[in-house]
Amino acid sequence: MMTENAFSLMVDRLDIIELTAKYAYRLDTRQFDSLMELWSDDSPVFDEEGFGLGKFTGKDEIRHHFEVDIYGQMENLCHMTVNHVINEILESRASGNCHVFAQGDVRAGGTSRATAYYKDEYVREDGVWKFSSRKVIPLTRPEVGTFEFPAGQNPFDQ
């Protein structure tokens, strides 16, 4: 028989996995208002420094990065997340990771493909799990089509 605590932990794990799925869907379908609802209200961080794309703090910076930096160069995107591991769940905090395969059409031509994993920190706000931090860590060298890294910031040219 499952204890109430074991049941609660299972529900929390499923809620966190669904959070990552909502992130991919809302980003790929450009639902920026609802995408920002998945982030903590307390200075969340999105870190793509591993791809030379910067580190962004707060919902306004994160949203600007997605709308301008990413979709300014990408026409379409598709993120597929798998291999979820929730490392630890506390009362209102959790951590975990999952792999991502991302592919998109570059506006200037070509296709971009990347594999990475997300190193995530989650926080429960008003009973709902949200991202407090999401760090993207490359697993393989990306295929970048004609995507333009900011001058001197392509980490794979170093």
Automatic annotation (TrEMBL):
It holds the Pfam family SnoaL_4. It comes from Streptomyces coffeae. It comes from the Bacteria. This is Nuclear transport factor 2 family protein. Residues 12-135 form the SnoaL-like domain.
